[in-house]
Design a protein that fits this description.
The chain is α+β, with helices and mostly antiparallel strands. It is about 50% helix and about 15% strand. The chain has three helices and three strands, in the order αααβββ. It has helices at about 1-10, 15-60, 65-85, and strands at about 90-100, 120-125, 140-150. It has a three-stranded antiparallel sheet with strand order 1-2-3, covered by helices on one side. α2 (about 15-60) packs antiparallel against α3 (about 65-85).
């Protein structure tokens, strides 16, 4: 027991150092960890928003009576889906691509909404990472949804 008392007596001079060490470890480890988690959640929110917006825009466009109305419906459906994920609407872009094409080729294509037509709806959302400046907008998430119009449509 003597050795234990001597050992405890040696530690008596280090009172209060655990608090200082904990604060130091909290600043060095926990603050960057919280920032990384916030960054990953922002990216994941953008991915979810783009995928859900593409799906909803595709469904709206696929059921529209004409291309102009379809584009309006698709844009509004995409806006609602993006708002649901708390992403800024200024960062939303809806484009269309022909059947079999990737979203990189989207832009100049506009679906005619003919019976049996197949096309892709591409929604691109800019992902904002917390605490990064506004001009850093190279992070984008793109969702793609393939639409196949029903072959038997009343006209």
């Amino acid at each position: 027991m003597r050795w234990l008392r001597r050992r405890l007596g040696m530690l008596a001079g280090e009172r209060g150092s655990a608090l200082v060490e904990f604060v130091f470890i909290a600043l060095v480890v926990f603050v960057p960890l919280v920032y990384v988690i916030a960054g990953f959640s922002a990216v994941q929110r953008g991915v979810f928003a783009s995928q859900a917006a593409a799906r909803e825009a595709g469904r709206a466009m696929g059921t529209a009576p004409d291309p102009v109305t379809g584009h309006e419906w698709a844009l509004r459906a995409a806006q609602l889906a993006v708002e649901d994920q708390s992403v800024d609407l200024a960062d939303l872009r809806v484009t269309y691509a022909p059947a079999g094409a990737d979203c990189d080729a989207a832009g100049g294509y506009s679906p005619a909404l003919l019976p049996g037509e197949e096309f892709s709806v591409c929604v691109t959302v800019t992902v904002r990472i917390p605490l990064l400046p506004e001009f850093v907008d190279a992070n984008t998430a793109t969702g793609q949804f393939v639409v196949e119009r029903d072959r038997y449509v009343d006209r």
